[in-house]
Amino acid sequence: MKNTISERVADFLKNYPPFSALESGQLETLSYEVTIVHKENNSIIFSEKEAPHDCFYVVHKGAVALTKKGSTQILDICDEGDIFGLRPLLAHENYKLEAKAHEETILYAIPIKEFKPLALQNHRVGDFLIESFASNTRNPYSQKHRGKLYGITTASGDGGGTETKLLDLQPVRYSSDLVTCTEGTQIKTIANTMGKHNVSCILVVKEGLPVGIITDKDLREKVATGLFPITGNAKSIMTTPAITYPKELTVTQAQMAMMKSNISHLVLTEDGTTDTPAVGILSKHDVMVAMGNNPAVLLRAIKRAKDSKRLRGIRQNIVSLLQGYLDENIPIGLVSKIISELNDATIKQVIDISIKKMETEPPVKFTWLTMGSQGRGEQLLNTDQDNAILYENVPDEESEATRDYFLKLGSIISTELNTIGFEYCPAEMMASNPLWCHSLDEWKEVTTHWMGNPGPDEVLLSSIFFDFNVTYGEKALADQLSLHIFDNVKKFPQFLTHLASGALQNPSPSGFFRDFLVEQDGAHKDFFDLKLRALMPLVDAARVLILSHSVKSINNTAERYEKLAELEPQNKEVYLACSYASKALLKFRTKHGLLHNDSGRFIALDKLNKEEKIKLKRTFKTIKEIQSLIEIRFQVKTLLR
Amino acid sequence: MWPFSSKKQLELPPFWWEYEDGFHQKLPDKVQENTFVVWDTETTGFRLDRDRMLCIGAVKLMNGSIAVKDSFEVYIHQEHYDAESAEIHGILRKGKRERISELEALKLFLGYIKNHVLVGHHVMFDVNMVNAALRRNGLPKLKNKTLDTGLLYKRTLLISNVLQKKEKYALDELAEKFSISKKDRHTALGDALITAIAFLRIVEKLTPRNLKDLIKKQDPPKFGL
């Protein structure tokens, strides 16, 4: 039996082991029995100690996090095509881990009743299962088997230590794109090849087997010093024999091996000896990335990434870095700088990748502007993407073709960003939207219109747009636009009043008795809206004040207040309090976002302890103060509302 | 009084009565407890008087799950044929697919949908298509409640004049927005599955209190409170 959907299911499954080993007839029958399950973010698929379901799961879209109860550490994340929840069914045990949707996820639930006979009949499927359970990884054939799946028995029960240890036991991810040469290759050619592939070492092979390795260090110490001529061959400078290891290597093992032989590259072969072909090279860099606790390493990994899938993986590491920083109480100002830097680098890399996907180079210079929280350097968690393209003026006859080019580029970039984990902006404020992709003159026109006719929409749009920050391309273009905006501030003094009035529109955070005001309705009933009621008033107030001083290129809210304190010593106290409050609130939001794997916008008040509540309330006082300051300064009251 | 009504009533086949009986049962109040039939039709064109259904595809959605086995896909034998639309859906008049009569298809379809809520992208078109087919076969109209993902999707977008909402959003746009593979576009069942996934995501965004609320959300939002 089959239908259009079962054909589609089969089409997907056939790409992944063990289903790839099934005959097409078997796969068809199996696919017909599948149930497609949709799981919302953070919804539980099965919990620890739960009796096994009658089916196991394959991730079709999204990601599933496997965790041990009482631990926030994620043991494994299953991506597209990964299987989970199978072993307990075969072993008739209860689940040993909790599986939770890490983002919105679509699963294929495969009934064990139909699958088991196939596993018994088809020895390749059986072998896969045996091997996968024996090696305790999800997919022994995959290059990126990260981590153990089932029943991790921790012998030593010492809290924090166990968790990092578990991480260290993860199999390491190595590069399987081997760059090779033969013993006779000229050194100059080797250097060129390494440069072209942007690698730090090259494998010397003879009849398909690894015989030696040449690294950057060899070129530096043996060739650049004049010890060997540049016309010499690979054999003369290679390190031989190459140190080889089997491909199933954990992070810790790899580290040990490198330390033991004092080398920075390991050659991975089929069986770990030099008698089998090499399958990959593991560099110290790979190991560092796997440890994921060093921004410099992550930054380099981002710059080396060749596709958005890889970048998506790196972003996971950025999140764990963030978690680490917060746990260690590192000042949030510094944390947000580092994370924003990494975010910026990611976006830059995405743009580079996307430009390569276009058929031609950009026709004129352009700037990629990020707006909103990322523009302000306050986006710590993955939230929406707000961005725009600004390009050089072009003659009329080319304007259409140029716009088409940048719109197409914009939509490629925004799709790729979405793949990495930046949600689409619900209001379509993205460069893929014709309203957010303009030449310099067009942007000048648009902003003039906003400032000259400041209705509620125009104020909203300006408040989002005026936090723009150059992420990629020609900074001079953005500077010209900034100058134009400041000119207009002087030309339309009314605009600031309207912007100030907009900043006062946010609902108040606390009620008459200094109680928290919570949401009355909707999905977040009885939650406190941290973004709308506490962060936005501060952000909006900072923007209007800084615009009135014509200060450009400071986007971060806390930094804006610091600058204001400098400019207006008489109000120093208020401004510094605001700076502190915005940092505290950002930290608050980030912590809660990490805890619940969401944007951290809505806070459940009953989950807060007394200290946190007091801290929050203290910021409210500051918010009231700054609001009355701008109300008086910009004479908002005189405005007919 | 209407001279034909009582006579016509008597001629209705048993499968219709069975379908109609199903509506004595109330639908569950909670969204999660409802079974939704998400469906799509492929037709020879857009004119209700002239064009015909070639294929009906549907899946059942219950608490976020879709059983592949329990999906519905029939190809219908039709006299009327339109070469232009064949380019879109790829259904040829003399294709290999097994085909059944329109009446048989309606019978199976009514038996499949029961009293469940019908969900579709621009669902009224499909409903009208089925109603036209029902009328040709001397049967009354569909009685099911309907949900249109096109209307519901609009409600997930921000309420602001800033965003120029389009009048209509095509299924392709939804698929893109929710990164759903468009591989089986323009097969009725494939489109039904895309619609089902888009529907799930939309419901998650809208968080309706109950079924009634969800149905109400299709209307344009009211201002001025």
Automatic annotation (TrEMBL), chain A:
Record keyword Cell inner membrane present: no
The GO terms this record gives for MF are:
[protein-PII] uridylyltransferase activity
> What protein name is recorded for this chain?
CBS domain-containing protein
Entry keywords, A to Z: CBS domain
* Domain (Cyclic nucleotide-binding): residue spans on this chain: 18-136
Species per Swiss-Prot/TrEMBL record: Flagellimonas hadalis
Outline the extent of the CBS domain: 174-230, 238-297
Indicate whether Membrane appears among the record's keywords: no
Q: CDD domains this protein is in?
A: CAP_ED (cd00038), NT_GlnE_GlnD_like (cd05401)
Q: Which Gene3D superfamilies match?
A: CBS-domain, Jelly Rolls
Which branch of life, at top level?
Bacteria
Stored InterPro entries: CBS_dom, CBS_dom_sf, cNMP-bd_dom, cNMP-bd_dom_sf, Diverse_CBS-Domain, DUF294_put_nucleoTrafse_sb-bd, GlnD_Uridyltrans_N, RmlC-like_jellyroll
From TrEMBL, chain B:
Q: Where is the Exonuclease domain positioned along the sequence?
A: 35-208
- Organism's domain of life? Bacteria
Recorded GO cellular component terms are:
cytosol
| Entry keyword set | Exonuclease, Hydrolase, Nuclease
Could you give a GO molecular-function term held by this entry?
DNA-directed DNA polymerase activity
Biological process GO annotation list? DNA replication
Subunit organization: DNA polymerase III contains a core (composed of alpha, epsilon and theta chains) that associates with a tau subunit. This core dimerizes to form the POLIII' complex. PolIII' associates with the gamma complex (composed of gamma, delta, delta', psi and chi chains) and with the beta chain to form the complete DNA polymerase III complex.
What this protein is reported to do is described as: DNA polymerase III is a complex, multichain enzyme responsible for most of the replicative synthesis in bacteria. The epsilon subunit contain the editing function and is a proofreading 3'-5' exonuclease.
What NCBIfam families does the database record attribute to this sequence? dnaq
PANTHER family with a match to the protein in the record: DNA POLYMERASE III SUBUNIT EPSILON, PROTEIN NEN2
Q: What is this protein called?
A: 3'-5' exonuclease
